[in-house]
Design a protein that fits this description.
Structural class: alpha/beta
CATH architecture of the largest domain: Up-down Bundle
Number of strands: 11
Largest sheet: 4 strands, mixed
Strand order of the largest sheet: 1-5-7-8
Order of helices and strands: EEEEEEHEEHHHHHHHHEEHE
Low-confidence stretches: none
Helix content: 40-55%
Mean pLDDT: 90
CATH superfamily of the largest domain: CRISPR-associated endonuclease Cas1, C-terminal domain
CATH topology of the largest domain: Four Helix Bundle (Hemerythrin (Met), subunit A)
Distance between the termini: 19 Å
Length: 301
């Protein structure tokens, strides 16, 4: 199983050679086997990439995140469909009735709100914990009353001790959240392709212009993991630095207890997506959701 997330920040050229990623910075070549790589993050506008390499990365289901001049992710590249039974998997997705998706969306949002509540408890900001529990219990099938949005407002205002807007670029935490969410989103997209799921066929998101509707649905319970870690590393900081970006990428290598097994968050995501693929194929009765209370963090083996 691929395990490396490769961050490239220097001006260089990257090529393919003998099934390896070859990074040439003019000071000697760095070789990384493609079979070891899950995601590549390109954080320099002068990096040169060959089309041959991009084609081969798609064949190996390796995602590529592109960053802009502010060092924030702006684009994502991945393989389109490389699962041997993708048509069968898509049929499972298409054939599911709306009631099925509405019911599953309810559970997703309930777990997301519970995870948000647990984040606040972990950082000792408990004034709205009971309110979040109440909102979690009020989620209906399809979340018609939009308890998700109400919970988000309560949660982020408490997290920041102020009126909080996710679109406010002047709030430092937003940079960390955007960066961390993109890394997680990219990894989930890669996993969806690997398990034959069409990422455009969402559970709740139905945007015809969004190729990652399903990804955006499935990542909702995982967002609070990013919230917790980004809050911790950016607390009392003034700027979003290189070290913060590296730490957020490395979140995939943090440990979590998932389905009664200790594993890396990257492996947890793989298992979570595999469970969803089996769930819609009627090979299992439920999906185990990631829980913030089971987050372990960085740990030496």
């Amino acid at each position: 199983m691929a395990f490396r997330v490769v961050l490239i920040e220097s001006e260089c050229s990257i090529h393919l050679k003998l099934n390896n990623l070859l990074i040439n910075k003019g000071e000697g070549d760095l070789w990384i086997p493609l079979d070891d790589i899950s995601i590549i993050v390109l954080d320099n506008l002068k990096i040169e990439v060959t089309v041959r390499l991009l084609s081969t990365l798609a064949e190996h289901n390796i995602g590529v995140v592109f960053c802009d001049m502010e060092h924030l992710p702006i684009g994502f590249y991945c393989s389109y469909d490389n699962h041997s039974r993708v048509s069968k998997c898509i049929k499972f997705q298409i054939d599911k009735p709306q009631d099925f998706y509405d019911s599953f969306w309810r559970v997703i949002i309930q777990q997301k709100i519970i995870n948000q509540k647990d984040v606040l408890e972990i950082i000792n900001k408990t004034s709205v914990v009971e309110k979040l529990e109440e909102l979690s219990n009020e989620v209906e099938s399809g979340d018609l009353s939009n308890r998700e949005a109400h919970a988000a407002k309560v949660y982020f205002n408490s997290l920041m001790d102020t009126s909080f807007s996710r679109g406010n670029e002047d709030i430092l935490l937003n940079s960390g959240l955007d960066y961390g969410y993109t890394i997680i989103r990219s990894y989930i997209a890669r996993a969806c392709v690997g398990y034959g799921l069409n990422s455009q066929i969402g559970i709740h998101h139905k945007n015809e212009y969004n190729r990652f509707n399903l990804v955006d649905d499935l990542m909702e319970p995982i967002r609070p993991f990013v919230d917790l870690y980004a809050y911790r590393i950016l607390e009392n900081e003034k700027y979003f630095k290189v070290e913060h970006r590296r730490k957020l990428i490395n979140l995939l290598n943090h440990k979590v207890l998932y389905d009664n097994k200790k594993m890396f968050i990257a492996n947890m995501i793989e298992e979570y997506i595999a469970q969803y693929a089996s769930f819609i194929a009627k090979k299992r009765e439920n999906v185990v959701f990631p829980k913030v209370i089971d987050y372990i963090g960085e740990e030496d083996d």
